[in-house]
Write a structure and sequence with these properties.
43% strand, single chain, alpha+beta, 1 helix, three-stranded antiparallel beta sheet
């Protein structure tokens, strides 16, 4: 099972923007995610700059190979 941390932001144009992080640390708190998201917003390092945090969520995914 692959786990991803999905950080969802709102941009100035009103559209959502998602930052997907592979292999996140287990058991992150809302406060830790909020701090990380605020750091992304204040550093202004992306072309489509997010202006506010919407949510942080773990995404669990199971991949099954087709064999025959």
């Amino acid at each position: 099972m692959a786990k991803t941390l999905v950080l969802t932001f709102l941009c100035a144009d009103g559209k959502e923007w998602k930052l997907n992080l592979a292999r996140p640390k287990e058991g992150l708190t809302k406060a830790q995610c909020d701090a990380a998201m605020n750091a992304v917003i204040t550093q202004d390092i992306f072309l489509k700059a997010p202006v506010s945090a919407v949510e942080a969520a773990y995404l669990d995914r199971t991949v099954t190979a087709v064999t025959a």
